[in-house]
Amino acid sequence: MNTTRRVAKNTAAMSLSTAIRIALGFAFTLYIGRTLGASWLGKFAILLAFLNIFQILAAFGIPPLVTREVARDRENTTRYFYNALLAQGVLGLGAGLLMIATAWLLGYPADTTQMLVAASLSVPLFAIAAAAGSILNAYERMEYQAVIEAVTSILQMSALVSVPLAQTGVVALSVIKVGGMAVSTSLYLFFLARLRVVGRPAFDLRFAWHLVRRALDLVLLALFDAFLFRVDILVLSKILDEASVGIYNAAQQLVKVAALLAMAYGEAIYPALSRLHQTAPRFFLAAIRKSLQYGSMLLLPLAVGMTLLAGQLIAFMYGPRGYEGSIFILQLLAWYMPVQFGYVVFSKALIASDQQHRARQVALSMMVASLVYQLVFTIWLGAAGAAIGSVLTYVTGALLTRFFVARSVGSFRASVVFGKPVLATAGMGLAVWLVHRQPLFVGVGVGVASYAALLFLLKAFAREDWDLVRRIVSRRDSASAFITERPQPDEVAIHRAVQE
Q1: DSSP structural state of residue 485
Q2: pLDDT tens per residue across span 192-203
Q3: E strands, 145-264, where?
Q4: Nearest 10 degrees: Cα torsion 319, 323, 328, 329
């Protein structure tokens, strides 16, 4: 399979996996928000925030390290898997205990604390799943993740609608999450066994410790990213009440779709970037440029459309009453999507080029900036201030990571990559504004049609772009691609498609 097609296949698989996870999270949000109200929705947001942070601590940055090393040298698959499992298993137990302690120390309402304590059981399970998933990712079998997400999503959603939550209380949400993680872990191990790339157990305490030490930059980066992804919820939950968190979360769920898809794309392209930097470095920057161009074509019009149609979107999703405060928050958070995508691409480029220390420095800077932004703007403007702080945080991250990539790899003219998407988006925004008082489906239809027409008129897709598409759908293999420094057909297409 040629490299372009492999990246596209993995991106599609990761996107499908993420889309299923998003659909589950969104279904949870809609069901809870419509049936139980904003206060329950706030508790659910706090639960997800804790799980995100402590699951990252359990993985300890080891999965991306294992993925990178096994993608480069598959002969050591067995050694990396078992020692990653050993390290992450111990760390997972510690992270679960730390989650319990943190929940008690923060002094949430009794039912919220009980919910968080019960959910801590899923943390060590996640560590095991992450160890198996890192090997599947290294072998670029991301399609297994889509299957796992589909199965666990169906089971969790079935449990959600079957359990009388008003009678059982919020602890039932934790039970559903723990059960889903147990199923997910079992399936990851099953698919890894089916792949037959891992031999007999080969535990080595010294090598496991070596993995922990090597992953220090990556775990700090992952923790910073998880913290950044949830700091708004954590700050809101302590400054305002849980109902306000629910109002904010209602809007945030709509932009999280794009944010999680951006992270999925980053995971999908990461192995390819790692190989490009190792075997064909002159095409490394080309892949980054093309990623940013395609991402801006998708996310800029989405941001403009959400800004103009926010009121109708919120009413359609959550009903005409109770979530009016979410409208302005959504208009602000819509601009989180394109800047977060830029940060993800540049950050993955730094890690793939063995500059995880730079990525860690940027993430630390973002975390400090985010705390300042969130505290200042949330105290000043409430939930809307939290939205402003989130956008400013990723603007900061995108600018810093771009600076380091430009200094170490190379730079490009922003007008070449973003010029046509910006022009097409501006025209689409005008067309949608003219009909924004019409029903939602009219505004969406006008936006899609006008944007597609403007991209065509501006010739936003060059001949080389269509060549890439043909290579993606082609079934011809290209076994020698990216093995040597000699340009292969896929590399030439990528390179020519981004020449200034």
Answers
A1: S
A2: 988 888 888 888
A3: none
A4: -110
| Residue 152 in tokens | 């666990």
What's the CA dihedral at 361, 91, 20, 15 to 10 degrees?
40
> Of 304, 311, 302, whose CA–CA distance to 329 is shortest?
311
Residue 238 has which token pair?
């302590």
Task: Please identify every stretch of the chain with a pLDDT value under 70, giving residue numbers as ranges.
Answer: 1-19, 21, 218, 221-222, 225, 462-500
Closest to 451 (Cα-Cα) out of 293, 297, 292: 297
- Asked whether 160 and 30 are in contact (CB, 8 A), the reply is no
| Residue whose pair of structure tokens reads 């405060």 in the numeric block | 325
pLDDT value at residue 268? 73
The length of the chain, given as a count of residues: 500
Which positions ≥6 away from 15 have C-beta within 8 Å? 261, 264, 265, 268
Find, among 281, 496, 500, 290, the residue nearest to 409 by Cα.
281
Taking the model in full, what pTM does it have? Answer: 0.69
Specify the pLDDT at position 37.
78
User: 293: how many CB neighbours lie within 10 A of its CB?
Assistant: 21
Structure tokens given for 272: 């390819």
CB 1 within 8 A of CB 488: no
How much is the mean pLDDT over the chain?
Answer: 83
First-to-final CA distance of the chain: 29
Phi (first) and psi of residue 140, to 5 degrees: 55, 45
In the chain, the amino acid numbered 358 is R
Residue located via tokens 């800029």: 300
Please name which of 53, 131, 130 lies closest in space to residue 99, comparing C-alpha atoms: 53
Backbone angles phi, psi at 353, to 5 degrees: -95, 25
Helix axes 38-59, 216-239, angle to 10 degrees: 160
Tokens of 56: 């990252």
In angstroms, rounded to a whole number, what is the distance separating the alpha carbons of residues 127 and 114?
Answer: 22
Up-side HSE of residue 211: CA atoms within 13 Å toward CB? Answer: 30
Distance, CA of 118 to CA of 282 (rounded, Å): 50
Which one, of 33, 255, 17, 15, lies nearest residue 153 by Cα? 17
Radius of gyration (C-alpha) of the chain in whole angstroms: 22
pLDDT for 109: 87
Give the 3-state secondary structure of residue 301.
helix
Give the residue among 424, 412, 421 at the shortest CA–CA distance from 498. 412
Whether the Cβ atoms of residue 142 and residue 268 lie closer than 8 Å to each other? yes
Other Cβ atoms within 10 Å of 165 Cβ, number:
18
